[in-house]
Design brief:
The chain is α+β, with helices and mostly antiparallel strands. It is built from 14 helices and five strands.
Length: 391
């Protein structure tokens, strides 16, 4: 049925609805779509990061490690400097739970040592008659917690008048596991402090070069090219030789941190420069300049936050380089020195091929180095993917 045609001069019929318009009636979104559309940028990044399972597990692993270094004195079975002269180069002990068919709980067997007069190697054998229960939340070697107050509480302790070398002992009878736990505090924090120095230099120098350009940019680029062309080992040698041998361990630690930061800032400075060269032409930068904002404010408040996710991903990838740098310097005898203990210093015990052949457990400090470096690399991959949640 067709509508009647109006006569000439008559108004056309009005078919427009006078009801209020509801925009949500045109396109109805699901609850999931509404949740995504209303989510903030950080929440979107977190959702995408969670989907990267390996990066998430790596982040949790690193968070646990950095939490452990706060209480390493409590976690270590022995004090850092405790020597067991009767158990030099003792191999790792195996933890048992069942003895002759009966459940005893976690324990280790006592050991007897015999010296091989031909090779001068100490041979240890378990004594099944000597059962040494592993104690938990117990009193053991004394220590100064963070150098502030005395305590002797440990998570795990050997039996009374017993031994507990889960990863063996070194040439002075010191527990390798305890020294690895103590060394984590130095090796992990030196990466954070080193990347802080590197970030300050890289963002400031690279930011000024990319924002202002001109002669300053030219000088900075030539300086970066000169530093990157110098071989790493001779550069480490020259910088490490600057530090006097009379410095205290804490000054040596700070000096190595500065050296690692000075070696790593060049790559970050170039990345920041390239980003600022593109961003300085944006309209909001021109608006800030017209309003009288200083260069430091424009760079710090407007330009750097624009690629902060890229900087975070760069940091997680650069920290492993810092840890490897400290390990290499200490292994070569150019870095930290005893009584400071790091994973690199622990590896100096395994310089000799004969030592590695007879006592391979002295290479155990390489395991946390490898795990931490892999975890940081996986975490960096996840953060890099999550930096742009819309892809």
């Amino acid at each position: 049925m067709t509508s009647p045609i109006p006569a000439p001069g008559e108004p056309l019929p009005h078919y427009v609805s006078t009801a209020p318009f509801d925009p949500y009636s045109v396109e109805v979104m699901t609850e999931e779509q509404v949740r995504v559309n209303q989510a903030s940028q950080l929440r979107l990044m977190w959702w995408k990061f969670k989907r990267h399972r390996v990066a998430l597990v790596s982040g949790i692993f690193l968070a646990v490690l950095y939490g452990m270094i706060l209480i390493c004195e409590f976690l270590a079975p022995y004090n850092l400097h405790t020597r067991n002269m009767d158990f030099i180069y003792a191999p790792p002990q195996r933890v048992h739970f069942i003895h002759e068919g009966d459940f005893v709980g976690p324990f280790v067997y006592g050991r007897t040592m015999q010296l091989d007069m031909d090779t001068l190697k100490r041979n240890y054998s378990d004594n099944p008659a000597d059962i040494q229960p592993v104690r938990f939340f117990c009193r053991g070697d004394g220590y100064r917690f963070w150098g502030l107050f005395e305590s002797d509480l440990h998570l795990v302790c050997p039996a009374q008048n017993g031994q507990l070398f889960l990863l063996g002992s070194d040439r002075l009878g010191r527990d390798v596991l305890s020294r690895i736990i103590y060394g984590a505090r130095i090796s992990l924090t030196i990466g954070l402090l080193g990347i802080t120095v590197s970030f300050v230099l890289g963002i400031v120098i690279g930011g000024l070069a990319g924002y202002h350009g001109g002669v300053f940019d030219l000088v900075v680029q030539r300086l970066i090219e000169v530093l990157q062309s110098i071989p790493s080992i001779p550069l480490w040698l020259s910088l490490a030789a600057i530090m006097p041998a009379t410095w205290s361990p804490i000054l040596i630690y700070l000096g190595i941190t500065v050296i690692l930061g000075l070696l790593d800032w060049t790559g970050l400075a170039r990345a920041v420069r390239s980003k600022l060269l593109a961003l300085r032409e944006e309209d909001y930068v021109l608006a800030a300049q017209l309003m009288g904002a200083k260069s430091s404010r424009i760079i710090g408040r407007h330009l750097v936050p624009g690629f902060m996710s890229h900087l975070i991903a760069t940091a997680t990838i650069s920290i492993p380089g810092m840890i490897l740098g400290e390990t290499a310097l200490s292994f070569l005898g150019l870095g930290l020195r005893p009584p400071i203990t790091s994973w690199g210093i622990l590896l100096t015990e395994a310089k000799s091929v004969s030592v590695i052949a007879f006592y391979p457990w002295l290479l155990f400090p390489t395991i946390p180095v490898i795990l931490v470096i892999l975890a940081f690399n996986f975490l960096g991959d996840g953060l890099r993917d999550a930096a742009d949640p819309y892809k």
